[in-house]
Amino acid sequence: MSPSPQNPLIVQSDRSVLLEVENPDYAAARDELARFAELVKSPEHVHTYRITPLSLWNAAAAGLKSDEMIEGLRRYSKYDLPDNLVTDVRDYVQRYGRVKLEKVDGALLLTSADETLLVEVLHQPKIAPMILERVGANALRIVDHERGRLKQQMIKIGWPVEDLAGYVEGTAFAFRLRQETAAGLPFHVRDYQRQSGEVFHAGGGPRGGSGVIVLPCGAGKTIVGMSVMEKVAARTLIIATNTVAVRQWISELLDKTDIDADAVGEYTGEKKEIRPITVTTYQCLTYHKRRSDGDGDLAGFPHLRVFDSENWGLIVYDEVHLLPAPIFRVTADIQARRRLGLTATLVREDGREDDVFSLIGPKKFDVPWKELEQQGWIAEAVCNEVRLPMTPEYRMQYAMADTRNKYRVAAENPLKLEATEKLINRHRNDRVLVIGQYLDQLDLLAQHFRAPLITGKMPNREREQLFEAFRRGDVTLLIVSKVANFSIDLPDANVAIQVSGAYGSRQEEAQRLGRILRPKSDGSQARFYTLVTRDTRDQDFAANRQLFLTEQGYSYFIYDDPDNLPSED
């Protein structure tokens, strides 16, 4: 297609792309860009994307060709594409796969048809110690245990490695997914779940076995994990976000597979079971008796021995975008084991997306949230931001706060209580979660509404009892801290009110929206509200969190008062 002034994109030579929101082709262009570009900002009228090397390499690893990307840009561009951008896209995409890791006669080799490129690698100070010898013109023999760190260093110099060195099989452990759950309900793997598992596994060959599956919260990432486990048929270590998530994994495994209960172990602060299928938490594995600098000596982390406690054939990293530094370190040492990352977003707040790419693997499969919504697999959601003023006295308190405390002062604006009450009254017949960051604020809300408050201090047993009461409908309002961000299965929750968040975290926005995206039995919409203090750091951070919603295709409506929201009818 030729460029046209009626098209929605302006593609610029610095690899930024501007997208007009009001254009009739906005949604189609947005979905095209999401395959290989990153959203940078999303104000009302024009959204800005950036095409980066990593976004192109993830797209290439998922099978997208450079010509497809360029054609997608041309299809929606107002003007001719800048020549340098076309060249850059082709250049970066062709870099993926130019360098490969392979096993030949038991030796780990870094190979390339480009002899000069290998000379460049040989002269990299941080890579040279990992190289044992040159093997002919087109291969370098690598120290076996440096497989992960080599990939980390290679991506830093602009050459992502395609890892085809294969994997150990691990100790065999076969099982089958049920066609009927243990509870007697019909069960089948959905098409997109099956497809994502097949793409990851790749028939058991070296092109499969490591990578990340990106699916919305509520789309059944656990089912994808179990589908992959069935294909691998080996002992598996699963790492989840918290003890509640661990027990949900175990419950799902026992409900939807023929695995015996005594073959599934929980390794948490409360239990230390190592079984053929073992489920643990990042927090447990990174427990340290004294304060750690995160990337320091791993000897002080006693529970990391779990990685070596069995001959694992697969390691599943649930919510892989939260991977802590010590787990990166140990993952670099276990590159011969299959590694599956599951997440709703590849965004990391610490900027270590390239480490996920190198050590867990590139993106293998994703499905746009709105596509699954249209198919009925996740609930339709409406996202609203309510911008609130401050009283003159409170505004003076904000003005006098130092830079470090300004966000908290704005986030705890007392007028949020009144706004929350209006929203709760508006949804008095719904299942409502009020979610926040600061415990003092949440305590106040819990006392005001006489509602249960769930925080990290609450014992897991009490937490699970409250979640179960919410599922039954005995409790219809829960006040929850960030412990509810992850892996909480509350299928009937249909309203979330966010009163404060973790600064500008797009990760958190994904997880909080995900709490209400399970399909509703009556087909009703989910409602997501964010309460923001106008003209403050609270509003600035909300704008960054909003990027995630825009990326996934959600409309984001802004109001000045809960009373101004449109009627639910």
The CATH class of the largest domain is Alpha Beta
Q: Uncertain regions: pLDDT < 50 for 5+ in a row?
A: none
CATH-scheme architecture of the largest domain: 3-Layer(aba) Sandwich
Kindly report how far apart the N and C termini lie.
42 Å
The strands making up the biggest β-sheet line up spatially as: 12-13-11-14-15-10-16
Evaluate the radius of gyration: 25 Å
| Beta-strand fraction estimate | 15-25%
Strand-pairing-aware structural class: alpha/beta
Quick one: overall form? globular
What is the CATH third-level topology name of the largest domain?
A: Rossmann fold
- On the 0 to 100 scale, the average pLDDT is 89
Structural summary, described in words:
With 569 residues, this protein is of the alpha/beta class. It has four domains: 9-95, no CATH class; 104-164, no CATH class; 191-367, Rossmann fold; 375-564, P-loop containing nucleotide triphosphate hydrolases (Rossmann fold). It contains 20 helices and 23 strands. A seven-stranded parallel β-sheet has the order 12-13-11-14-15-10-16. A seven-stranded parallel β-sheet has the order 19-20-18-21-22-17-23, with helices on both faces. It has a five-stranded mixed β-sheet with strand order 7-8-6-5-9, with helices on one face. Helix 18 (460-472) links the parallel strand 19 (453-454) and strand 20 (477-480). Helix 3 packs antiparallel against helix 4 (83-95), helix 6 packs antiparallel against helix 12 (353-360) and helix 7 (191-201) crosses helix 8 (221-232). The longest helix is centred in the last third of the chain and has 15 residues, at 537-551. The two termini are 42 Å apart. The model has no long low-confidence stretch (mean pLDDT 89).
